[in-house]
UniProtKB/TrEMBL annotation:
InterPro entries: Fructo-/Ketosamine-3-kinase, Kinase-like_dom_sf. It comes from the Bacteria. Keywords: Kinase, Transferase. One of its GO terms (molecular function) is kinase activity. Pfam families: Fructosamin_kin (PF03881). PANTHER family: FRUCTOSAMINE 3 KINASE-RELATED PROTEIN (PTHR12149), PROTEIN-RIBULOSAMINE 3-KINASE (PTHR12149:SF8). The keyword Transferase applies. Belongs to the fructosamine kinase family. This is Fructosamine kinase family protein. SUPFAM superfamilies: Protein kinase-like (PK-like).
Length: 292
């Protein structure tokens, strides 16, 4: 396996790489992560058993989409593919190796400025993405719509409620709730923004060169969804929000929509992890019903 991946790295970089050392490191609950190196270079590698769709393929496409705008920094995608090992196959993603440092206030301010720039890049007038991808381990519906209220109510909350219902978890009538949300958001017509899609502290790092984003779930959406997610599991430091607001002020009624945007991620956590997230998601739905 490592010989195959080494050859792919060599082809992608036009430099001979022969994996001499592999070190497993912490990096996620859905895949194995390694640092691989020879005497001249090192890389970060993600591995997962290849079952069904190519999840790491979509992660690579997301990282490339973010980096193309030259606003936020991401790990550089070296190569990705599938390698056969006996009777099983593994999907892999090779990224540039990054050395992380402790973040300071200036780093968070820079990230706020960079994210504002990302959100303001011009986009085609469609919410969604050319193909479905993943939010964590969950397939993410990206059917394209010109209207935000329809896209979010159907492809985000509606799709997630249907997944939960198939597991026997049903707190509301999905059709009724989707209609309520669509009506609530109908007058809100945000700009088409490229978003990270899963923006929380665990997907942000800082290197000596500055902040870096990884593990995206990219699509075109209301930029507020990135900010809402960043507040869900503990807000980022104040410097981030201050810098973002300086370069791209949020509408005065953002707070009214924030619980709905956070609900998508709570439903996903309830789907994936169950436990206390089930009660948290149920309470959030009840609160959103009252708001809508």
């Amino acid at each position: 396996m490592w010989h195959f991946i080494s050859e792919h790295i060599s082809q992608a970089t036009a430099t001979c790489f022969l994996c001499q050392h592999t070190q497993q490191v912490t990096g996620g609950d859905s895949h194995l992560t390694y640092v691989v190196r020879d005497n001249h270079a090192r890389y970060f590698v993600k591995l997962r058993r290849h079952r069904g769709p190519l999840q790491l393929h979509h992660e690579a496409l997301g990282l490339e989409a973010l980096s193309e705008g030259h606003t936020v920094a991401t790990p550089r995608v070296i190569c990705h593919g599938v390698t056969q090992e006996g009777n099983s196959s593994r999907e892999y993603l090779v990224l540039s190796y990054l050395r992380f440092i402790a973040p300071e206030s200036a780093h968070w301010a820079l990230l706020g400025k960079q994210l504002a720039a990302l959100h303001q890049l011009p986009q085609e007038p469609h919410f969604g993405w050319p193909e479905d991808n993943y939010i964590g381990l969950t397939p993410q519906c990206n059917d394209r719509y010109a209207t935000w209220s329809v896209f979010f109510s159907e492809c985000r909350l509606g799709a997630m409620l249907e997944k939960l219902a198939r597991q026997g978890i049903r707190w509301v009538n999905p059709d009724v709730f989707v209609t309520q949300v669509e009506h609530f958001l109908h007058s809100h017509q945000p700009a088409y923004s490229l978003v990270h899609g899963d923006l929380w502290s665990g997907n942000i790092g800082v290197t000596p060169k500055g902040p870096v984003l990884y593990d995206p779930a990219v699509h075109i959406a209301d930029r507020e969804t990135d900010l809402a997610m960043s507040e869900l599991f503990g807000r980022l430091p104040p410097a981030f929000y201050q810098a973002y607001a300086q370069h791209a002020p949020l509408p005065h009624d953002y707070e009214a929509r924030k619980p709905l945007y956070q609900l998508y991620h709570l439903l996903n956590h309830a789907l994936l992890f169950k436990g206390h997230y089930l009660e948290q998601a149920k309470s959030a739905i009840i609160a959103c019903q009252k708001r809508c």
